[in-house]
Every structure is written in C-alpha cells, then in structure tokens.
Design brief:
alpha+beta; two-stranded antiparallel sheet
Amino acid sequence: MTILVISQPEAEPITLAEARSHLRVTSTIEDDNIARLIKAARTRLEKETGRAFIEQTLEYRMEDFPCGYPYRIKVPRPCLIELQSVKYLDVDGNLQTIS
C-alpha cells in the first residue's frame, strides 16, 4: 500500500498567526520555522491517525487486487469528498478503469 500526495492542501489546519499567538511569539523572525513545524505536525498526525485533516488529492496504490467475493478495498484517510477513479492493471498489463 502506497499513498502519494498529488496536490498539497491549500492551507494548514491552523494559521501562522494562531500558532504565533499560542507560542507567544510576537516577532516574525521565526515565521518560516513555525510554518514548517505546522506542516510537519499535520503530516505526522495524518499518518498516525490515517485521516486527512485538510482537503488534498491523494493516489492510493495497492500491490494486489483484493481476492474473494465481495471485493472490498479499504479506502485510506476517510471521509472522502470525491473518489475520482479506480484503475487496475489486467492480466495482460493493460490499465483498466472501473466505472
């Protein structure tokens, strides 16, 4: 199982101003560092919880198609806004899309 981030979130769950206020930092000297820490915290928590906190586009890759009926694919990082497509390689190596 591999999850690739296709498009990053447009914003973080908390703003730089909110973080600066919480940390009681009044200057802007550390803004770049604080912004990196906000992103690092979000990405780590998303991995630990298996959830996406901010809207983003992800690609989920599996090594094998699920066996046995009914075929079930556990979608990571719920709740989804939209599932764009489900694609797989058939026995001949051709990419197929499930409607």
